[in-house]
Amino acid sequence: MSKFVVGQVLEHDHRLIDADFQRFKEGLERDEWLSEPFQRAADALRHHIYVEEEGLFPVLRVGGLVAPVFVMLAEHAEIWRSLDAIEAEVGRDAGRALAAMARMVSVLDSHNSKEEQILYPASAQVLNPDDTEAVRLAFEQGKRPEGWVPTNLRG
């Protein structure tokens, strides 16, 4: 039996990602481009979104959480677009990068709070051991396929 607890692991992931984005933002405010924390956070956030959309959300929808998942999917698309906007400014315009960071963080803070208060607790009730193992494998070993984008950004 795995000791992997989906909500705890994903919430901890939020904290790690947030800390790296904060380091990057503080660098931008000093007109320094700290690409390492940004890239680590961006890669981790994109992976986090992938794991949720491909592993967690389908099970939560079947479990009756259709409306909350719908909201999360829309917010994932908005977060992803903000990440793209920040990446487009890396090494170029710190002011525009800071503005894109502010947009992303405002969505991300609210988004993470909803996940932590609603979806993650529900996952403990909805996911069976096989579902939990699938999320664990996606989180720990899975690779986001090249070109993968959130559901709401697909043509």
Give the key terms:
mainly alpha, 155 residues, elongated
Helix/strand layout:
Blueprint: H1 6-29, H2 35-62, H3 66-89, H4 94-126, H5 129-140
Describe this protein's structure:
- This protein has 155 residues and is an all-alpha fold.
- The chain has a single domain, classed as Up-down Bundle (Four Helix Bundle (Hemerythrin (Met), subunit A)), CATH 1.20.120.520.
- It is 78% helix and 0% strand.
- It contains five helices and no strands.
- It has helices spanning 6-29, 35-62, 66-89, 94-126, 129-140.
- The radius of gyration is 16 Å and the shape is elongated.
- The model has no long low-confidence stretch (mean pLDDT 94).
Produce a short descriptive summary.
The protein has helices at 6-29, 35-62, 66-89, 94-126, 129-140. With 155 residues, the protein is an all-alpha fold.
**Which descriptor suits the 3D outline?**
elongated
Rg, Cα atoms, Å: 16 Å
Q: Helix- and strand-based class?
A: mainly alpha
Largest sheet: none
What count of structural domains? 1
Average pLDDT confidence is: 94
Q: What is the CATH architecture annotation?
A: Up-down Bundle
CATH topology: Four Helix Bundle (Hemerythrin (Met), subunit A)
The percent range for helix content is over 70%
Distance between the termini: 40 Å
